[in-house]
Design brief:
mainly alpha, 2 domains, 2 helices, about 90% helix, rod-shaped
Length: about 140
């Protein structure tokens, strides 16, 4: 009986050692899973932070793209106005050139100079004033 009891205890010890090994192995696997979960959580936080930074950068770039698109639209609009402005100015230029030509054709050469003409007018005024003076003296007017 003691032999049977000793054998049973040996088997029980062996089973207990196997259970303890399995427990330790399961515990190590659980600790490994806990470490993996913590690492994944930390990675997730980092990825979320990086995603927020990237989204903010995307929003900034979209705003910049909108600003550039508006500037391009303004430049396109300005460019589209130039041909009609050139056409209008060409028409004005033609009108003024024609007007200038007509005025040029109406100019005539006047002989002499304006200083000579001024001198003639002054001489005639002198003669007129002397004639008036002579008439007044003849009439006895003061």
């Amino acid at each position: 009986m003691q032999v049977l009891k000793a054998q049973k205890q040996i088997v029980d010890c062996f089973q207990q050692e196997e259970i303890a090994k399995q427990r330790d192995s399961s515990k190590a696997l659980a600790e490994s899973a806990v470490d993996e979960i913590k690492s994944l959580n930390d990675t997730q936080v980092g990825i979320l932070r990086n995603k927020a930074i990237l989204e903010a950068e995307r929003d900034r770039l979209l705003q910049e793209l909108n600003r550039v698109n508006q500037a391009i639209d303004t430049a396109d609009h300005d460019l589209s106005q130039i041909p009609s402005a050139i056409t209008r100015l060409e028409e004005e230029k033609q009108k003024y050139a024609h007007q200038t030509y007509q005025l040029h054709k109406s100019l005539r050469l006047i002989p002499g100079s304006s200083s000579e003409d001024t001198q003639v007018i002054e001489n005639i005024d002198q003669i007129r004033l002397r004639a008036i003076k002579v008439i007044q003296e003849a009439l006895g007017l003061p």
